[in-house]
């Protein structure tokens, strides 16, 4: 085989150049072996071979012929007559032949280019590069014609690149086409290797005349590299971008303008990359370019960072300037920053605008110390004093935000430049910070003071003076802000580990223990971490550690309890804690005041002096299951039955839950449940007596049930917990509320849920809760003491009964007498529960149904939210069927009721307490999320056979109306909270809003017509609000006097809703089908405005549709068929309105509205012919 290859190689070398190239062009370059063979053939040609002189002219001829064949393919007569085909015309056949010929020529050129590459790279330089240049230049000059063949382009660019790298004669003739190709390739493929190749050829770009118009395409490619991520992320890319600024004044200006436009939107990494690029560009240019760069662009950046209208933008500009700040030790940089910043920065620190002062302060802190490196020492000292004077002034600024940054900046400057700052300045500055700023009225300023001290401690030179000053901030451990108290604890933890400091000299130990006993867990845990080396150390014996902890407990019992609570979290071993528990129990039981006949467990419970301690005792007993717990069982029964006020008493809730666990662990759960049910039945009976509510028939009474065995005995007097009758219905009801709260709680836990669902008394509890829930809903407005706990317990039981297929045996469950059977009730328990609740949850907007009492409104909202939660949970679990329309109607009615109630309370000027208002809003926020989830569930269940219900469209309109109503009556803060919960459901809201209009071209087109009729008949308020905000924006853009605009607050009170709609628009971009549907709804609103003569609404809605909803993405509405179908009617109505209106203001609004539609109207008249001008 090797002999054959050698013979073939030898024969080719001895052949003519034409034969050599003809044989070479038959090779397939896609095969690696062919490339190796060709390389071996050419690189083995010696200088004595005739091919060394004759091959290059022949190569030029071959290349010329192949290029001519590629650009003008001809057909030679086929050797055989082609068969006729009815499927292809002769022209199609000729086109295929041309394409085949062109592909063959491209493959041939690819191989010839590779031959040229191998000739240039010949190890012994046998071939003259100057002789090869005509061939290479021919390939290069025709590069633009080979754009369809990427492999050929790459081969030719490799050849041109080799000429440049080897500094071969004529290389400047091979860059005009190859360089744009390489730049374009790097932008398209986004590979680091291509960026590296472009950077390696950077000097070639200096040969271009960038002022010539013919270079425009290359200039645009270079501008694109400025925003290309691959260039910003790679080191070679950043170096190349820094290089191109020196190519031309115009190119530099355009590149700088491109960077400037990206600053507002760039991420941190992008902005930092621009900083590095700009610094490299500045270093690489000189003369007029440098002057323009410094006095034009950099000066503009510095001024922009000060006068930016948003803090985010100012921070972004400073991040770019950070490329120079980080290199200030480089020669010339510090002088440059001083020259550009000094004229504006000191003046800006003293202006009236607090935003400008804040931005200037940020810049000063970045540039500190701002000084002229060439100035005399006296001048520098004077300038430094000026900067400290301004910082001292700014820490007392009227604006809290300025004070926060000034305090942080002062500590930062002291930390970094302690050595160069005069001691008198340090003392003066620290005294003001410790004495004044630690007492500032703003929480954030006090917090920044503590955080600054923590940062300053990182400089050991500050420790001596801080040792004296730190006690002055000790009072912040009692600060009203949790963040400040937590920061003080971080400070104490830090100085505990510094040998020369003692934390108890900063904050007294008694104050620490008081804080540990009463403060938030976040602070208490940090205090435990601080004290654990002293009061429960791991480096001493367990006995000694326990003694120290007992000392702490005796000194402050509550602090000791909190200390023990967090001890394990802070590293105490379980073994040492168990020993501590043993020691503590021994101490408790040794108390001489305890009666000798009391058992140990009851003793523990008796000496527990608060609810938290009693709960802990019960938890211990339920975990270790002591033998003698009978006494505690009676205590537990008393706890669970005397439960008035349970929903609002957190400490009592913990005790009751502990009692549940103990009763469950010792087998007394059934007796407890019986006692609770007797109290529920008593309350249900009193509901019947007071309100005439019918009590369902019961098959089994609790007295006749089979008794369960218990591991403990309960005293006879405890078995009849209802012996002492409450004197009023309200007392009975409050106990029933506490029991309902317990049942709701019990069905959440798996063990107690199994016990309840397996109880023989389940039916009795369910029916009693049914009656009490009915009363709670019907009379929640008239009786302020009504609570949602019975409704939540009733719905929770129904939900878990349905999941467990648990049935009830009454036939009086929400059906007419004699109609129900046990099996049917088993199948529809959730349907009937929801049906029952909906029957008794009447929602009316008559004036009489709106209570004038704020508390009653809160009750109603809570009840409706509880019912809505049950509906959504049931549908989500697949337990509710066939009443989707009714559920949607209920939710819509609920939201309409809230909107009406908000309007009513606004007109009546009701004064809600802050807590009540927050509770109402939390319910509304939850209800909004439930309504959105209901839409999501129904949308997921939508199909061609089961289209979306009209009620869903109504509901989403009511939800949008609710947002505007809350912003109008409760303010933007509450509206922003509601919008925050709505954002995760935005796709569902948008789809539900536009779905019916999308049905236009389907079999249910009548639904589309109904939807539009619905919009016209009962038009929602949100499009009118939207139109008002847009109209205000139009006026603001056209009115010169700004004060006149802001003198009309009613026209700018919906900023939250405006931002919400802008978010919707951003989601709709590119989704033309749903955008089309939403557009139709808004266009329908403009028709309503025309009919009502409200031309401001018409103009506002059309402005939103044309400028924001559609915008520049599809100005001609080519993808918006439904909107185009709607356009003629509205356009002609506007024209008629203009003719009919005599009022100049109204005519002006209509003319402005028509101008918005003119572009798309005339486009489809003259370009597409869709509309007629007549």
From TrEMBL:
Where does the record place Polar residues bias?
8-21
Instruction: Give one Pfam hit by family name.
Output: Condensin2nSMC
GO cellular component entries = condensin complex; nucleus
Q: Where is this region: Disordered?
A: 1-21, 70-96
TM regions (residue ranges)? none
Q: Which InterPro entries match?
A: ARM-like (IPR011989), ARM-type_fold (IPR016024), Condensin2_G2 (IPR024741)
SUPFAM superfamilies named in the record: ARM repeat
Gene Ontology biological process: mitotic sister chromatid segregation
Which intervals carry biased composition (Basic residues)? 78-88
- This protein is called Condensin-2 complex subunit G2
């Amino acid at each position: 085989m090797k002999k054959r290859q050698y013979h073939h190689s030898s024969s080719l070398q001895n052949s003519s150049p034409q034969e050599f190239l003809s044989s070479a062009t038959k090779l397939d370059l896609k095969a690696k072996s062919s490339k190796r063979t060709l390389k071996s053939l050419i690189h083995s040609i010696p200088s004595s071979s005739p091919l060394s002189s004759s091959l290059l002219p022949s190569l030029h001829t071959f290349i010329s012929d192949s290029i001519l064949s590629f650009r003008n393919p001809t057909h030679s007569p086929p050797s055989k007559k082609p068969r006729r085909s009815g499927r292809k015309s002769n022209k199609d056949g000729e086109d295929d032949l041309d394409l085949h010929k062109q592909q063959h020529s491209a493959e041939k050129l690819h191989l010839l280019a590779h031959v040229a590459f191998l000739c240039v790279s010949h190890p012994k330089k046998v071939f003259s590069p100057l002789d090869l240049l005509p061939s290479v230049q021919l390939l290069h000059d025709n590069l633009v014609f080979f754009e369809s063949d990427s492999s050929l382009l790459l081969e030719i660019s490799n050849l041109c690149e080799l000429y440049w790298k080897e500094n071969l004669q004529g290389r400047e003739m091979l860059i005009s086409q190859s360089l744009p190709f390489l730049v374009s390739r790097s932008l398209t493929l986004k590979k680091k290797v291509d960026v590296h190749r472009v950077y390696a050829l950077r000097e070639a770009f200096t040969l271009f005349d960038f002022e010539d118009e013919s270079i425009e395409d290359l200039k645009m490619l270079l501008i694109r590299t400025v925003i290309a991520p691959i260039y910003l992320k790679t080191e070679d890319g950043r170096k190349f971008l820094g290089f191109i600024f020196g190519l031309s004044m115009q190119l530099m200006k355009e590149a700088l303008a491109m960077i400037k436009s990206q600053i507002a939107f760039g991420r941190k990494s992008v902005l930092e990359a621009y900083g590095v690029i700009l610094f490299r560009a500045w270093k690489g240019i000189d003369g007029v370019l440098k002057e323009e760069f410094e006095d034009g662009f950099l000066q503009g950046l510095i001024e922009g960072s000060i006068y930016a209208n948003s803090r985010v933008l100012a921070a972004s500009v400073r991040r770019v300037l950070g490329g120079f700040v980080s290199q200030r030790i480089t020669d010339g940089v510090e002088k440059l920053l001083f020259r550009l910043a000094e004229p504006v920065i000191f003046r800006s620190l003293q202006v009236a605008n607090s935003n400008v002062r804040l931005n200037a302060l940020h810049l000063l802190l970045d540039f500190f110390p701002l000084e002229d490196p060439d100035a005399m020492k006296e001048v520098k000292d004077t300038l430094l004093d000026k900067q400290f004077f301004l910082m001292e002034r700014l820490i007392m600024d009227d604006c809290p935000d300025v004070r926060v940054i000034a305090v942080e900046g002062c500590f930062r400057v002291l930390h970094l430049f302690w050595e160069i700052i005069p001691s008198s300045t340090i003392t003066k500055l620290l005294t003001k910070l410790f004495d004044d700023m630690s007492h500032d009225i703003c929480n954030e300023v006090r917090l920044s003071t503590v955080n600054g001290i923590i940062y300053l401690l990182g400089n050991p030179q500050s420790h001596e003076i801080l040792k004296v000053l730190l006690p002055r901030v000790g009072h912040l451990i009692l600060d009203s802000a949790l963040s400040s108290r937590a920061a003080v604890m971080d400070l104490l933890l830090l100085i505990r580990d510094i040998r020369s400091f003692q934390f108890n000299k900063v904050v007294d130990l008694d104050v620490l223990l008081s804080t540990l006993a009463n403060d938030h867990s976040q602070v208490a845990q940090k205090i435990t971490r601080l004290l654990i080396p002293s009061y429960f150390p791991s480096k001493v014996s367990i006995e000694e550690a326990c003694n120290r902890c007992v000392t702490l407990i005796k000194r402050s019992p509550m602090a000791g309890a909190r200390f023990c609570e967090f001890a394990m979290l802070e590293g105490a071993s379980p073994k040492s804690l168990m020993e501590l528990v043993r020691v503590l129990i021994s101490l408790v039981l040794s108390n001489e005041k305890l009666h000798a006949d009391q058992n140990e467990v009851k003793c523990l419970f008796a000496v527990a002096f608060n609810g938290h301690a009693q709960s802990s005792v019960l938890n211990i007993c339920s975990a270790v299951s002591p033998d003698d717990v009978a006494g505690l069982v009676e205590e537990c029964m008393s706890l669970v039955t005397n439960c008035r006020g349970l929903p609002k008493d957190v400490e009592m809730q913990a005790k009751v839950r502990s009692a549940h666990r103990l009763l469950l662990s010792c087998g007394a759960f059934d007796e407890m449940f019986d006692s609770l049910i007797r109290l529920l039945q008593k309350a249900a009976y009193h509901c019947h007596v007071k309100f005439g509510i019918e009590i369902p028939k019961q098959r089994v009474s609790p007295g006749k049930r089979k008794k369960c065995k218990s591991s403990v005995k309960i005293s006879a007097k405890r078995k009849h917990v209802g012996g002492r009758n409450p004197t009023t219905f309200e007392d009975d009801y409050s106990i029933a509320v506490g029991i309902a709260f317990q049942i709701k709680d019990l069905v959440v836990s798996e063990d107690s849920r199994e016990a309840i669902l397996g109880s023989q008394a389940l039916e009795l509890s369910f029916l009693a809760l049914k009656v009490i829930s009915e009363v709670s809903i019907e009379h929640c407005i008239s009786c302020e003491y009504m609570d949602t706990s019975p409704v939540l317990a009733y719905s929770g039981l129904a939900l878990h009964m349905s999941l467990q297929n648990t049935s009830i045996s009454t036939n009086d469950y929400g059906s007419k007498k004699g109609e129900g059977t046990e099996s049917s009730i088993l199948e529809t328990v959730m349907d009937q529960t929801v049906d029952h609740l909906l029957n008794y949850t009447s929602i009316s907007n008559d004036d009489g149904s709106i209570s004038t009492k704020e508390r009653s409104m809160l009750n109603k909202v809570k009840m409706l939210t509880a019912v809505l939660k049950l509906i959504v949970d049931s549908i989500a679990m697949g337990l509710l069927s066939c009443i989707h329309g009714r559920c949607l109607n209920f939710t819509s009615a609920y939201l309409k009721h809230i909107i009406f109630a908000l309007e009513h309370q606004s007109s009546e000027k009701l004064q809600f307490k802050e807590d009540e208002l927050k509770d109402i809003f939390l319910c509304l926020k939850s209800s909004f999320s439930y309504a959105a989830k209901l839409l999501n569930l129904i949308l997921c269940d939508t199909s061609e056979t089961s289209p979306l219900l009209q009620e869903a469209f109504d509901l989403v309109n009511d939800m949008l109306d609710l947002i505007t109503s809350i912003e109008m009556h409760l303010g933007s803060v509450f509206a922003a909270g509601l919008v925050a919960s709505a954002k995760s459901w935005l796709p569902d809201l948008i789809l539900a809003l536009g779905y019916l209009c999308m049905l236009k071209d389907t079999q249910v087109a009548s639904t589309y017509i109904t939807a539009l009729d619905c919009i016209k008949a009962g038009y929602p308020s949100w499009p009118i609000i939207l139109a008002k905000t847009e109209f205000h924006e139009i006026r603001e853009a056209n009115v010169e006097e700004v004060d006149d605009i802001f003198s009309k607050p009613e026209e700018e009170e919906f900023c939250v809703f405006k931002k919400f709609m802008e978010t919707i628009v951003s989601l709709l971009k590119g989704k033309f089908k749903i955008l089309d549907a939403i557009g139709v709804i808004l266009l329908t609103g403009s028709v309503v405005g025309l009919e009502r003569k409200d031309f401001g609404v018409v103009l506002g809605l059309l402005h939103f549709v044309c400028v924001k909803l559609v915008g520049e993405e599809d100005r001609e509405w080519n993808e918006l068929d439904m909107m185009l179908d709607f356009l003629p009617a509205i356009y002609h109505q506007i024209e008629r309105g203009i003719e009919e209106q005599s009022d100049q203001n109204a005519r002006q609004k209509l003319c402005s509205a028509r101008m918005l539609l003119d572009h798309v109207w005339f486009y489809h008249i003259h370009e597409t012919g869709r509309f007629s001008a007549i």
